[in-house]
Structure formats: C-alpha cells, structure tokens
Amino acid sequence: MRRLRMAAAVAVLAMTVPQALGGASVANAAPPAGACHDAAPARAQVRAQPWAQQVLAPERAWPHGRGAGVLVAVVDSGVDADHPQLRRPGKVREGRDFYLSGGHPGAFDCVSHGTGVAGIIAADPMPGIGFRGVAPDAEILPVRVSDRDLGDQGEQLRIDPQVVANGVRYAADQGAKVINLSLAGFDDFAVIRDAVAYAVARDALVVAAAGNGQRDATIAFPSYPASYDGVLGVGAVDIDGARMTGSQIGSYVDLVAPGAKVLTTARVDGHAYVDGTSFATPFVSGTAALVRAAWPRLSAAEVARRLIATAAPSRGGNGSAAYGHGLVDPYRAVTDGLDTRGPDALPAHVPLPPDQARLDRIASEESTAETAKWGTAAAIAVLTLVVLLALVVPRGKRRRWRADRAEAVPVEPATVEPPEQVFLISGR
C-alpha cells in the first residue's frame, strides 16, 4: 500500500546528555510496554532564547489572550505529556493512538516528533528557559498515527493513509479548532482528502506542512494534504528569512514560518534543534490558536484569511510559490482591528459671533491703503506732466510753435564696397 511521508528532515540535536535546571527533576515518560522500537533519549535543556521566538515574539500578543479554550490536535507521533513544559494539568489530553491497536492513549511519544510540534504550539514558559510555545494556554489533543521517522537502515518510513484519515476524523469529532498535520506526500489519497473535508466542514482549521522534497527551485512538486481545499499550507524559512533548502514550492504554500535550526521540546525532557516544514507548521497552528481565542466568532476560513492578510512581507513578494503570502505574524494576526469601536463623534459646530471691532479695523486699514495707493499714482502722474512741460514749452517758444521738417530718409541705404583685396599681413 502506498503511504504518506512525515514532513520532518533529520533533526540536529543540541546535546545528548540530560541536564536538568536547578531544582527541576527529569521527567519519566512511560510509553506502553513494547510500544517504542527504539525510544529517543532525553535531551539537555537549552536556556537561550531561540531565534524563531525572537523573530515572531508571540508574547506581544499574550495581553490579548494566550490561546485559552482552544483545542489543537497534533496528528503526529504522539505527544509526551511528561515533558516539564507540557505537563501542566489539563494542557495535554489523553488523546488516542491510531497506530497501535489496543486502545492506547496518544499522550506518549517514541521519537519526539509530535512532542516537538506540540511544544512549538503550546509549551509553557519556564524560569531560565528561553523556549516557549506560541499559545501556551491552548490545549493539546495528541493523535498518534506514526511510530518512527526512519527505519533501521536510515530509510524514511511512511504512514498508512487510512490511519491518518482516522486520526483527522477523530480530531474533528473531539472538537479540535485547529488540526496540525506535520506530514506531506506527493500522492492524493481519497481517504485523507475526505477526512480533511470532514474536519473543514466542522469548522476546524487544518494546517499542513508543505513538505521537504524540493530539489530544483524551478520545479513545483505536488503536496498533500497541503493542497486540499480549506487547508493552510506552510513552508519553512531560515534565520535570514530565506526559503529553507528542501521546503517545497507551489500554489499550496500559503504562509512561511521558521523551520531551519529551530528549537523545540524533546520527549522526556530537554530540547532539540530540528529542521523541516514539520516544525514550521506548528508556528502557524499556534498563531491560529491565539486568533481563535481572541476572535471566537470567526470561522476557520475567516481565521485563515486573517493569518494570510496579516503576514509579514517575505522575499518572494505577496503570493509567491516559495513564500506564499509571507511570514506568519502572531501579534498582527491577533491585534489588527482588535478595537472595533468606531471613531468618537465630533461635537456640533457652533460658529462664533463675528468680531465687529476687528472687522471695522480691517476695513479701515484697507480703505487707508487704497487711498494711499491712488494718491501715490496721482502724484506720479502730475510729476510726469510737469517734466514733459518743462522740456516741451521752452523748445516750442524758440520755434514759435512752428513744426520742424524731418530729414529725408534715403530710398536705399548707401552700400560700402570693400576693397578688391584685403591683406591680413602687410608685405615688405
């Protein structure tokens, strides 16, 4: 049977030795007996604030809400509810395991993939730790549909489409307002398409990874479930805002988010640096949770449009195949238009009575100026007449006022002929 790939690239882990913060105990994750083929170990806790959290700064939106009351389904490898930043009571529900038979919960993880996704969405802030989730008060519904990313020989394992479809339907039936699908494939499976349509019809916002299969920047590959109607497709960028190598290109890319060397939670305890559109996707899902908490009357489609409309400009320009509509912006997504009050009404205009004294003064000044102007013109005219009379009268008396005869004007002007030769240099 054809299967679906997880969208995560190989994670680059910070350290391999567990290291607890002062006073914090290392958690005991307890998957069911035999559930994990080769469980990933605990990781060291990283204190520094990651670049993705610095760039997106979701805490700027927290005064308006931190995602409380919004259920986010993580359809993935499970979620380790014992992680120190995920163990707060009520944060991670029991969920369900669709990968193993036996009615197991989904609140355990063998490989840290789903735990990392859940951490980016909703990890609690912790003293001395720079990493925290986008919407720390959102609730996580773990839906386990896979076991491992890689096989014993390093090959990429695939997920049964029917298992994915069952998980998506379950998430919708549990009332998830946001469904995170950090997985992608080139094949269009009808069972997944129908399950996504089922979730969309129940007002769930489905957010899916664009995939990591891009090798040639000029060729667009298909990607599912990102291409399905009602799904927000998410690509990945690096710390410089450039498309992460491998992040797929196509019309299904609606937004981008940090996805290269981003920090997130690892199973049991600690943090890991990871790559892939798998980990860009939960930044958008967490932002969607913030919006759905702050704007509870918006439908899933309206939330999607809001996320797109408030995205920060990216290198590709608006609507590009590589960057979609830009970088997700949690603060703008929550706060734009938050004050819905109209402008205050202006008071009625009451004209002031005219200042008659001022008007009279202005009229007097204008009259004086006009009189002075005409007086000056008259004086200049009289002076001009006197000068003319002084010149004309004496001459007229001398000629006894007889007219003088003008000299005759020659018919043609006299022509001066040049000499026959013109010497520029006189000779000796």
Spell out the key features of this protein.
Rossmann fold, 12 strands, 7-stranded parallel beta sheet, 428 residues, alpha/beta, cell membrane, 11% strand, transmembrane, 3-stranded antiparallel beta sheet
Descriptive account of the structure:
It comes from Amycolatopsis speibonae. It is found in: Cell membrane. Belongs to the peptidase S8 family. Keywords: Cell membrane, Hydrolase, Membrane, Protease, Serine protease, Signal, Transmembrane, Transmembrane helix. The chain crosses the membrane at residues 374-393. A hairpin with a 5-residue loop joins β11 and β12. The chain starts with a strand and ends in a 30-residue tail after the last helix. The protein is elongated, with a radius of gyration of 42 Å. The protein has a domain at 49-335: Rossmann fold (3-Layer(aba) Sandwich), CATH 3.40.50. It has helices spanning 51-56, 113-122, 161-173, 190-201, 277-294, 300-309, 330-335, 356-398, and strands at 4-6, 71-76, 96-97, 139-144, 158-159, 178-181, 183-184, 205-209, 231-237, 255-258, 262-265, 271-274. The chain is built from eight helices and twelve strands. The strands form three sheets. Strands 3-4-2-6-8-9-10 form a seven-stranded parallel sheet, sandwiched between helices. 46% of the residues are buried. The protein has 428 residues and is an alpha/beta fold. The protein is 28% helix and 11% strand.
